[in-house]
Write a structure and sequence with these properties.
Layout lengths: L13 E5 L20 E2 L2 E2 H11 L4 E6 L4 H6 L4 H9 L3 H9 L7 E5 L6 H6 L2 H4 L4 E4 L3 E4 L4 H12 L2 E7 L9 E8 L3 E9 L10 E9 L3 H5 L12 H6 L7 E5 L3 E4 L3 H13 L5 H12 L1
Parallel strand pairs: 1-4, 1-6, 4-5, 8-12
Antiparallel strand pairs: 2-3, 6-11, 7-13, 8-11, 9-10, 10-12
Bound molecules: 1-O-phosphono-alpha-D-glucopyranose.
Length: 297
């Protein structure tokens, strides 16, 4: 199939959310509570990425979960007692917020990753549910605060270029070993044509400092490569390695998106995200501003 084949431009209707991770960096907070339920301002991490996906036109939501993650499906379910209580108290704003966090019937799908064998393995666990169509992946550890959601920006690029699109940002050289890193063919400042991908290279061998953040639009052909179960960096089955095998056979681009990225997989990024998101919330931004000023002095 030619790299410009129209079949590489099918609409993106499905999104995978890998949520099986243990969240050890937040212990003891995550002893009993999934890390994806930690709140940024008034909603949990998982809801932020769900909303970003919904804004981008995603219709079906696929969670790759694990043990002790039942709270995530509860969160998106219809909660009749809560809704009735809010209604009887006339708390209509709250009621609207609660309703807005429901996933409609028939649109949430769950599968399990029994063992933590890597991000690539987590995505492979959803292969049968996704079938033969392109899909998005959103990692709830990565939040983007932007006027237009990061995934919406990516879908716009996908509608032009087709194939595969990943969100990228520059990182300090010493941090390349924390991320998937791009080998760049050409770069117009926003759209980056990719000629290779390396998972967590040491700074001295990293092909660039442009890193993947947790947003992907991928063609289903990636499942074929994932099903080899080849291990890579850290002894894990890496999504980056499977994606690298698609390059040259179909379009593959990186998008330097507009917006601020927060790595909420660690405590400082999580706190920074809480500050940034609260400052954008009209209800509390003035008070939060004052608190920050107090502590700055
Ligand atoms: C994963 C990916 C990596 C990517 C990162 C973004 O790594 O393997 O390529 O840069 O997410 O957050 P992890 O954070 O799971 O180690």
């Amino acid at each position: 199939m030619s790299p410009n084949s129209p079949s590489y431009k099918k609409p993106i209707r499905k999104a995978i959310f890998p949520v099986a991770g243990l969240g050890t960096r937040f212990l003891p907070a995550t002893k009993a509570m999934p890390k994806e339920m930690l709140p940024i301002n008034d909603r949990p991490l998982i809801q932020h990425v769900f909303e970003e996906a919904r804004e981008a036109g995603i219709e079906e939501f696929f969670f790759v979960t694990g043990r002790h993650k039942e709270m995530l499906e509860e969160h998106f379910d219809f909660q009749p007692e809560l809704e009735a209580t809010l209604q009887s108290r006339g708390k209509n704003d709250m009621l609207a917020k609660v309703r807005d966090s429901e996933i409609p019937a028939g649109k949430l799908f769950l599968t399990r990753q029994p063992k933590p064998l890597g991000l690539g393995h987590a995505i492979w666990c959803a292969a049968k549910l996704i079938g033969n169509e392109p899909f998005a992946v959103l990692l709830p550890d990565d939040l983007v605060l932007a006027e237009q959601g990061c995934l919406t920006q990516m879908v716009n690029l996908y509608n032009e270029q087709g194939g595969n699109v990943i969100a990228v940002r520059d990182v300090p050289k010493e941090d390349t070993k924390k991320y998937g890193i791009l080998d760049i063919e050409s770069d117009d400042g926003s759209c980056v044509k990719i000629k290779g991908l390396v998972e967590k290279p040491e700074p001295d061998i990293a092909p660039s400092t442009l890193s993947i953040i947790g947003r992907y639009i991928l063609q289903p052909d990636v499942f074929k490569h994932l099903s080899n179960f080849e291990t890579g960096a850290g002894g894990e089955i890496q999504l980056t390695d499977a994606m690298a095998k698609l390059i040259g056979t179909q379009p593959f681009h990186g998008l330097r998106f507009n917006g601020n990225h927060f790595d909420c997989g660690g405590r400082t990024g999580f706190i920074e995200a809480n500050i940034a998101f609260s400052l954008c919330d009209k209800e509390i931004s003035d008070s939060v501003q004052k608190i920050i000023q107090n502590y700055a002095n």
